[in-house]
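Async update (no meeting this week)

Hi team, since we skipped the sync, here's where things stand on the single-chain job. The sequence we agreed to prioritize is pasted below, unchanged from the tracker. I ran it this morning and attached the output directly underneath so nobody has to dig for it. Comments welcome in thread, and please keep replies under the output.
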Amino acid sequence: MATPAQRTNTWTLDQWYAQDVAGTQGLQGLTPNVELWVWGNNGNGNLGQNDIVNRSSPVQVPSSWSGDRFKTEAPGHNFGQLNVGVQCGQMIKGDGTMWYIGGWNNMGSGGVNINTQISSPVQVPGNWSAVSGTLAQVARKADGTIWGWGRAQNGALGLNNETQRSSPTQIGTDTTWDYINGHSLVNMATKTDGSAWMWGDNEFGALGLNNSTQANNARYSSPTQLGNTGDWTNHNGFAFSRNVLSASIKSDGSLWTWGSNGNPSGSQFNGVLGHNDIVQRSSPVQVGTNTTWTGFMWADEESALGLKTDGTIWSWGQSTFGRLGLNQPHNTYYSSPTQIGTNSDWVRVGKSGTRALGALNSSNELYVWGYNDTGNLGLNDRTNRSSPTQIEGTWYGISNSYSGFGSVAFGAKISG
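Output:
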Protein backbone atom coordinates (compact mmCIF):
# COMPACT_ATOMS: atom_id res chain seq x y z
CA MET A 1 0.00 0.00 0.00
CA ALA A 2 1.38 3.42 -0.88
CA THR A 3 2.32 5.74 1.95
CA PRO A 4 -0.39 8.42 2.36
CA ALA A 5 0.54 12.00 1.52
CA GLN A 6 1.78 14.08 4.47
CA ARG A 7 -0.71 16.46 6.06
CA THR A 8 -0.19 19.37 8.40
CA ASN A 9 -0.92 18.40 12.00
CA THR A 10 -1.23 14.75 10.98
CA TRP A 11 0.73 11.74 12.18
CA THR A 12 1.10 9.41 9.20
CA LEU A 13 1.90 5.82 10.09
CA ASP A 14 2.83 2.54 8.46
CA GLN A 15 2.03 0.67 11.65
CA TRP A 16 0.86 1.49 15.15
CA TYR A 17 2.22 -0.77 17.79
CA ALA A 18 3.65 -1.31 21.25
CA GLN A 19 4.33 -4.29 23.47
CA ASP A 20 2.01 -3.50 26.35
CA VAL A 21 -1.06 -4.85 28.07
CA ALA A 22 -3.82 -3.83 25.69
CA GLY A 23 -6.10 -4.79 22.86
CA THR A 24 -4.54 -6.48 19.86
CA GLN A 25 -7.69 -6.96 17.84
CA GLY A 26 -9.61 -4.99 15.29
CA LEU A 27 -7.57 -2.20 13.79
CA GLN A 28 -4.24 -3.93 13.30
CA GLY A 29 -2.74 -3.50 9.86
CA LEU A 30 -4.60 -0.30 8.99
CA THR A 31 -2.58 2.67 7.76
CA PRO A 32 -4.78 5.67 8.60
CA ASN A 33 -3.73 9.28 8.85
CA VAL A 34 -4.07 10.11 12.52
CA GLU A 35 -4.01 13.36 14.43
CA LEU A 36 -2.78 13.93 17.96
CA TRP A 37 -5.51 15.31 20.27
CA VAL A 38 -5.35 16.17 23.99
CA TRP A 39 -7.72 17.20 26.77
CA GLY A 40 -7.96 17.65 30.54
CA ASN A 41 -5.65 19.39 32.99
CA ASN A 42 -3.23 21.86 31.43
CA GLY A 43 -2.03 23.65 34.55
CA ASN A 44 1.61 23.18 33.58
CA GLY A 45 1.32 23.28 29.80
CA ASN A 46 1.20 19.50 29.55
CA LEU A 47 -1.28 19.54 26.65
CA GLY A 48 1.32 21.12 24.36
CA GLN A 49 -0.92 24.07 23.47
CA ASN A 50 1.61 26.78 24.45
CA ASP A 51 -0.68 27.89 27.28
CA ILE A 52 -1.92 26.65 30.68
CA VAL A 53 -5.67 26.57 30.00
CA ASN A 54 -7.54 23.36 30.86
CA ARG A 55 -9.55 21.73 28.06
CA SER A 56 -12.78 19.76 28.65
CA SER A 57 -13.02 18.64 25.04
CA PRO A 58 -10.30 17.38 22.68
CA VAL A 59 -8.00 19.90 20.99
CA GLN A 60 -5.36 19.12 18.40
CA VAL A 61 -1.66 19.45 19.23
CA PRO A 62 -0.22 22.21 17.00
CA SER A 63 2.74 21.77 14.65
CA SER A 64 3.37 19.60 11.64
CA TRP A 65 3.95 15.99 12.64
CA SER A 66 5.36 13.70 9.97
CA GLY A 67 6.52 10.52 11.70
CA ASP A 68 5.58 7.37 9.78
CA ARG A 69 4.34 5.60 12.87
CA PHE A 70 3.70 6.11 16.55
CA LYS A 71 6.11 4.02 18.59
CA THR A 72 5.99 3.81 22.36
CA GLU A 73 5.19 1.43 25.17
CA ALA A 74 2.87 3.44 27.38
CA PRO A 75 1.39 1.19 30.04
CA GLY A 76 -1.71 -0.61 28.85
CA HIS A 77 -1.39 -0.40 25.08
CA ASN A 78 -0.50 -2.88 22.40
CA PHE A 79 -1.07 -0.58 19.47
CA GLY A 80 1.38 2.27 19.99
CA GLN A 81 0.30 5.29 21.98
CA LEU A 82 1.58 8.20 23.94
CA ASN A 83 3.40 8.00 27.22
CA VAL A 84 1.56 10.39 29.53
CA GLY A 85 3.33 11.02 32.82
CA VAL A 86 2.89 13.32 35.79
CA GLN A 87 1.72 16.35 33.84
CA CYS A 88 4.07 15.46 31.04
CA GLY A 89 4.10 13.26 27.98
CA GLN A 90 6.57 11.81 25.50
CA MET A 91 6.06 10.67 21.94
CA ILE A 92 8.34 8.77 19.56
CA LYS A 93 7.88 9.19 15.83
CA GLY A 94 8.70 6.63 13.20
CA ASP A 95 11.97 8.40 12.39
CA GLY A 96 13.24 7.63 15.90
CA THR A 97 12.91 11.16 17.26
CA MET A 98 11.41 11.57 20.75
CA TRP A 99 9.31 14.59 21.67
CA TYR A 100 8.42 15.95 25.10
CA ILE A 101 4.89 17.26 24.52
CA GLY A 102 4.94 19.58 27.52
CA GLY A 103 4.25 19.88 31.23
CA TRP A 104 5.72 20.00 34.68
CA ASN A 105 9.47 19.49 34.28
CA ASN A 106 11.04 20.51 37.59
CA MET A 107 12.45 17.01 38.22
CA GLY A 108 13.89 16.62 34.74
CA SER A 109 11.06 14.34 33.58
CA GLY A 110 11.11 15.84 30.10
CA GLY A 111 14.65 14.64 29.43
CA VAL A 112 15.60 17.91 27.74
CA ASN A 113 18.24 18.94 30.30
CA ILE A 114 16.24 21.76 31.84
CA ASN A 115 14.03 21.89 34.91
CA THR A 116 11.43 24.44 33.88
CA GLN A 117 7.85 24.18 32.67
CA ILE A 118 7.37 23.48 28.95
CA SER A 119 4.08 24.11 27.15
CA SER A 120 4.87 23.03 23.57
CA PRO A 121 6.70 20.03 22.09
CA VAL A 122 10.51 19.88 22.45
CA GLN A 123 12.77 17.17 20.98
CA VAL A 124 14.80 14.84 23.22
CA PRO A 125 18.12 14.11 21.42
CA GLY A 126 18.81 10.55 20.29
CA ASN A 127 17.47 7.72 18.13
CA TRP A 128 14.72 6.05 20.16
CA SER A 129 12.39 3.08 19.79
CA ALA A 130 10.24 3.17 22.98
CA VAL A 131 9.51 5.28 26.06
CA SER A 132 7.52 4.76 29.25
CA GLY A 133 7.28 5.99 32.85
CA THR A 134 5.80 8.92 34.73
CA LEU A 135 7.94 10.40 37.54
CA ALA A 136 10.94 8.30 36.51
CA GLN A 137 11.23 7.77 32.77
CA VAL A 138 12.73 4.77 31.00
CA ALA A 139 13.39 4.58 27.26
CA ARG A 140 14.99 2.18 24.80
CA LYS A 141 17.21 3.15 21.91
CA ALA A 142 17.36 1.39 18.55
CA ASP A 143 20.65 -0.28 19.61
CA GLY A 144 18.96 -2.21 22.45
CA THR A 145 20.25 -0.04 25.31
CA ILE A 146 17.94 1.46 27.96
CA TRP A 147 18.14 4.93 29.49
CA GLY A 148 16.60 6.65 32.52
CA TRP A 149 15.91 10.23 33.62
CA GLY A 150 13.70 12.19 35.99
CA ARG A 151 13.07 11.43 39.65
CA ALA A 152 15.45 8.89 41.24
CA GLN A 153 13.81 8.35 44.63
CA ASN A 154 14.00 4.71 45.78
CA GLY A 155 16.34 3.92 42.90
CA ALA A 156 13.60 4.36 40.30
CA LEU A 157 16.05 5.24 37.50
CA GLY A 158 17.88 1.93 37.85
CA LEU A 159 21.25 3.69 38.09
CA ASN A 160 22.18 2.28 41.50
CA ASN A 161 21.75 5.65 43.23
CA GLU A 162 19.12 8.28 43.99
CA THR A 163 20.54 11.10 41.90
CA GLN A 164 17.98 12.94 39.78
CA ARG A 165 18.75 13.21 36.05
CA SER A 166 17.37 15.81 33.64
CA SER A 167 18.65 14.11 30.49
CA PRO A 168 18.81 10.44 29.44
CA THR A 169 21.49 8.38 31.25
CA GLN A 170 22.28 4.81 30.23
CA ILE A 171 21.23 2.00 32.61
CA GLY A 172 24.04 -0.58 32.65
CA THR A 173 25.76 -1.66 29.46
CA ASP A 174 23.49 -4.41 28.07
CA THR A 175 22.29 -4.16 24.49
CA THR A 176 19.70 -6.96 24.62
CA TRP A 177 16.77 -5.07 26.15
CA ASP A 178 13.54 -5.86 24.34
CA TYR A 179 10.59 -4.20 26.12
CA ILE A 180 10.14 -1.47 28.73
CA ASN A 181 7.36 -0.18 30.96
CA GLY A 182 6.91 1.81 34.13
CA HIS A 183 4.79 4.07 36.30
CA SER A 184 5.57 6.47 39.12
CA LEU A 185 8.68 5.08 40.90
CA VAL A 186 8.49 1.53 39.44
CA ASN A 187 10.17 0.57 36.16
CA MET A 188 10.92 -2.69 34.35
CA ALA A 189 12.32 -4.16 31.17
CA THR A 190 12.56 -7.54 29.50
CA LYS A 191 15.48 -8.96 27.56
CA THR A 192 15.49 -10.93 24.34
CA ASP A 193 16.03 -14.13 26.36
CA GLY A 194 12.57 -13.77 27.94
CA SER A 195 13.79 -12.58 31.34
CA ALA A 196 12.07 -9.68 33.13
CA TRP A 197 13.89 -7.15 35.32
CA MET A 198 12.38 -4.77 37.89
CA TRP A 199 13.66 -1.78 39.85
CA GLY A 200 12.48 1.11 42.03
CA ASP A 201 10.02 1.32 44.91
CA ASN A 202 8.77 -2.07 46.12
CA GLU A 203 5.95 -0.83 48.33
CA PHE A 204 3.29 -3.53 48.78
CA GLY A 205 5.40 -5.95 46.73
CA ALA A 206 4.80 -4.10 43.44
CA LEU A 207 8.06 -5.39 41.93
CA GLY A 208 6.84 -8.98 42.26
CA LEU A 209 10.06 -10.16 43.93
CA ASN A 210 8.28 -11.90 46.81
CA ASN A 211 9.04 -9.21 49.38
CA SER A 212 7.89 -5.67 50.08
CA THR A 213 8.98 -2.32 51.44
CA GLN A 214 6.98 -2.73 54.65
CA ALA A 215 8.65 -6.05 55.41
CA ASN A 216 12.31 -5.19 54.93
CA ASN A 217 12.64 -1.81 53.25
CA ALA A 218 13.25 -3.68 49.99
CA ARG A 219 13.85 -1.07 47.31
CA TYR A 220 15.93 -1.85 44.26
CA SER A 221 18.11 0.77 42.58
CA SER A 222 19.30 -1.45 39.72
CA PRO A 223 17.51 -4.03 37.53
CA THR A 224 16.66 -7.22 39.50
CA GLN A 225 15.32 -10.34 37.81
CA LEU A 226 11.66 -11.35 38.22
CA GLY A 227 11.34 -15.14 38.27
CA ASN A 228 13.38 -17.23 35.86
CA THR A 229 14.86 -16.58 32.44
CA GLY A 230 12.28 -17.43 29.81
CA ASP A 231 9.27 -16.87 32.09
CA TRP A 232 8.19 -13.82 30.12
CA THR A 233 9.01 -14.93 26.57
CA ASN A 234 6.36 -13.60 24.15
CA HIS A 235 4.41 -11.92 26.96
CA ASN A 236 1.63 -9.53 26.00
CA GLY A 237 2.89 -6.71 28.18
CA PHE A 238 2.91 -5.22 31.65
CA ALA A 239 0.93 -2.45 33.39
CA PHE A 240 1.60 -0.56 36.62
CA SER A 241 -0.24 1.91 38.86
CA ARG A 242 1.70 4.27 41.10
CA ASN A 243 4.14 2.17 43.19
CA VAL A 244 1.62 -0.36 44.43
CA LEU A 245 0.01 -2.40 41.62
CA SER A 246 1.41 -4.48 38.76
CA ALA A 247 -0.06 -6.74 36.08
CA SER A 248 0.93 -8.71 33.02
CA ILE A 249 -0.73 -10.78 30.34
CA LYS A 250 1.33 -13.78 29.26
CA SER A 251 1.41 -15.12 25.72
CA ASP A 252 -1.13 -17.83 26.64
CA GLY A 253 -3.74 -15.16 27.45
CA SER A 254 -3.53 -15.57 31.23
CA LEU A 255 -3.67 -12.40 33.37
CA TRP A 256 -1.37 -12.02 36.39
CA THR A 257 -1.52 -9.33 39.10
CA TRP A 258 0.41 -8.48 42.26
CA GLY A 259 0.97 -5.72 44.83
CA SER A 260 -1.54 -3.89 46.96
CA ASN A 261 -5.11 -5.12 46.85
CA GLY A 262 -6.79 -1.74 47.13
CA ASN A 263 -6.09 1.84 48.09
CA PRO A 264 -3.14 1.75 50.53
CA SER A 265 -3.79 5.34 51.65
CA GLY A 266 -7.34 4.47 52.69
CA SER A 267 -8.74 2.21 55.39
CA GLN A 268 -10.27 -0.40 53.12
CA PHE A 269 -8.76 -2.74 50.56
CA ASN A 270 -11.11 -3.51 47.68
CA GLY A 271 -10.00 -6.60 45.79
CA VAL A 272 -8.52 -4.72 42.83
CA LEU A 273 -6.12 -7.61 42.11
CA GLY A 274 -9.14 -9.62 40.96
CA HIS A 275 -8.50 -12.71 43.12
CA ASN A 276 -11.86 -12.61 44.94
CA ASP A 277 -10.20 -11.55 48.20
CA ILE A 278 -8.41 -8.55 49.75
CA VAL A 279 -5.02 -10.22 50.28
CA GLN A 280 -1.87 -8.40 49.20
CA ARG A 281 0.47 -10.28 46.80
CA SER A 282 4.23 -9.72 46.47
CA SER A 283 4.69 -12.08 43.51
CA PRO A 284 2.60 -12.66 40.35
CA VAL A 285 -0.68 -14.60 40.87
CA GLN A 286 -3.03 -15.58 38.03
CA VAL A 287 -6.47 -13.97 37.92
CA GLY A 288 -8.81 -16.96 37.78
CA THR A 289 -8.13 -19.61 35.14
CA ASN A 290 -9.24 -17.71 32.05
CA THR A 291 -6.74 -17.57 29.17
CA THR A 292 -8.57 -15.20 26.84
CA TRP A 293 -7.29 -11.86 28.16
CA THR A 294 -5.85 -9.54 25.54
CA GLY A 295 -5.93 -6.09 27.19
CA PHE A 296 -5.64 -4.48 30.60
CA MET A 297 -5.51 -1.10 32.37
CA TRP A 298 -5.43 0.19 35.96
CA ALA A 299 -7.41 3.26 37.10
CA ASP A 300 -5.23 4.66 39.86
CA GLU A 301 -4.78 2.01 42.60
CA GLU A 302 -8.46 1.20 43.10
CA SER A 303 -9.92 -0.12 39.84
CA ALA A 304 -9.03 -2.38 36.91
CA LEU A 305 -10.28 -2.84 33.34
CA GLY A 306 -9.69 -5.91 31.16
CA LEU A 307 -10.40 -6.85 27.56
CA LYS A 308 -11.02 -10.40 26.36
CA THR A 309 -10.53 -11.93 22.93
CA ASP A 310 -14.31 -12.18 22.46
CA GLY A 311 -14.52 -8.36 22.46
CA THR A 312 -16.05 -8.00 25.94
CA ILE A 313 -14.68 -5.69 28.64
CA TRP A 314 -14.57 -6.41 32.37
CA SER A 315 -13.89 -4.30 35.47
CA TRP A 316 -13.27 -4.87 39.16
CA GLY A 317 -12.13 -3.05 42.29
CA GLN A 318 -13.86 0.05 43.65
CA SER A 319 -16.54 2.02 41.79
CA THR A 320 -15.57 5.45 43.19
CA PHE A 321 -16.65 8.22 40.78
CA GLY A 322 -18.15 5.57 38.49
CA ARG A 323 -14.80 4.32 37.28
CA LEU A 324 -15.93 0.66 36.98
CA GLY A 325 -18.41 1.66 34.27
CA LEU A 326 -21.09 -0.54 35.82
CA ASN A 327 -23.51 2.26 36.70
CA GLN A 328 -23.22 1.29 40.36
CA PRO A 329 -23.27 3.48 43.51
CA HIS A 330 -20.15 5.33 44.59
CA ASN A 331 -18.69 2.73 46.97
CA THR A 332 -19.56 -0.57 45.29
CA TYR A 333 -16.78 -3.18 45.33
CA TYR A 334 -16.03 -6.14 43.07
CA SER A 335 -13.08 -8.41 43.86
CA SER A 336 -13.29 -10.42 40.64
CA PRO A 337 -13.91 -9.43 36.99
CA THR A 338 -17.47 -8.24 36.19
CA GLN A 339 -18.61 -7.60 32.62
CA ILE A 340 -19.45 -4.04 31.53
CA GLY A 341 -22.63 -4.16 29.46
CA THR A 342 -23.20 -6.82 26.82
CA ASN A 343 -21.32 -5.46 23.81
CA SER A 344 -18.68 -7.68 22.22
CA ASP A 345 -17.10 -5.28 19.74
CA TRP A 346 -14.45 -3.67 21.97
CA VAL A 347 -10.91 -3.71 20.56
CA ARG A 348 -8.80 -1.55 22.91
CA VAL A 349 -8.76 -0.27 26.48
CA GLY A 350 -7.10 2.83 27.91
CA LYS A 351 -7.39 5.72 30.33
CA SER A 352 -8.85 9.19 30.18
CA GLY A 353 -7.37 10.54 33.40
CA THR A 354 -6.08 9.44 36.78
CA ARG A 355 -9.42 7.91 37.84
CA ALA A 356 -11.11 7.49 34.48
CA LEU A 357 -11.09 4.70 31.92
CA GLY A 358 -11.90 4.32 28.25
CA ALA A 359 -12.39 1.78 25.48
CA LEU A 360 -12.49 1.81 21.70
CA ASN A 361 -14.83 -0.35 19.62
CA SER A 362 -14.46 -1.80 16.14
CA SER A 363 -16.40 1.13 14.67
CA ASN A 364 -13.66 3.53 15.83
CA GLU A 365 -15.94 4.95 18.53
CA LEU A 366 -14.30 6.01 21.78
CA TYR A 367 -16.14 5.69 25.11
CA VAL A 368 -15.02 7.00 28.51
CA TRP A 369 -16.23 6.93 32.12
CA GLY A 370 -15.16 7.77 35.68
CA TYR A 371 -13.85 10.89 37.43
CA ASN A 372 -14.03 14.11 35.42
CA ASP A 373 -12.57 16.78 37.69
CA THR A 374 -10.62 18.65 34.99
CA GLY A 375 -12.75 17.84 31.98
CA ASN A 376 -10.48 14.86 31.32
CA LEU A 377 -13.35 12.77 29.92
CA GLY A 378 -13.37 15.10 26.92
CA LEU A 379 -17.16 15.53 27.06
CA ASN A 380 -17.14 19.33 27.38
CA ASP A 381 -18.16 19.29 31.04
CA ARG A 382 -16.90 18.18 34.46
CA THR A 383 -19.61 15.66 35.26
CA ASN A 384 -18.54 12.18 36.38
CA ARG A 385 -19.86 9.22 34.37
CA SER A 386 -20.62 5.74 35.77
CA SER A 387 -21.18 4.04 32.41
CA PRO A 388 -19.43 4.31 29.02
CA THR A 389 -20.16 7.62 27.27
CA GLN A 390 -19.07 8.41 23.72
CA ILE A 391 -16.61 11.16 22.74
CA GLU A 392 -17.52 12.50 19.34
CA GLY A 393 -15.20 11.68 16.46
CA THR A 394 -13.58 8.77 14.66
CA TRP A 395 -10.77 7.48 16.85
CA TYR A 396 -7.80 5.17 16.59
CA GLY A 397 -6.94 4.96 20.29
CA ILE A 398 -6.56 6.56 23.69
CA SER A 399 -3.37 6.62 25.70
CA ASN A 400 -2.34 5.70 29.15
CA SER A 401 -2.88 8.84 31.22
CA TYR A 402 -1.78 9.65 34.73
CA SER A 403 -1.03 12.86 36.58
CA GLY A 404 -0.39 13.32 40.27
CA PHE A 405 -1.92 16.78 40.24
CA GLY A 406 -4.83 16.37 37.88
CA SER A 407 -5.95 14.33 34.90
CA VAL A 408 -4.66 14.43 31.34
CA ALA A 409 -5.68 12.44 28.27
CA PHE A 410 -3.98 12.03 24.89
CA GLY A 411 -5.75 10.40 21.97
CA ALA A 412 -5.36 9.67 18.27
CA LYS A 413 -8.17 10.63 15.93
CA ILE A 414 -8.42 9.33 12.38
CA SER A 415 -8.24 12.37 10.12
CA GLY A 416 -10.37 13.09 7.10
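Quick observations from my side:
The mean pLDDT is 79.
Residues 24 and 226 are 25 Å apart (CA to CA).
Reply here if anything looks off.
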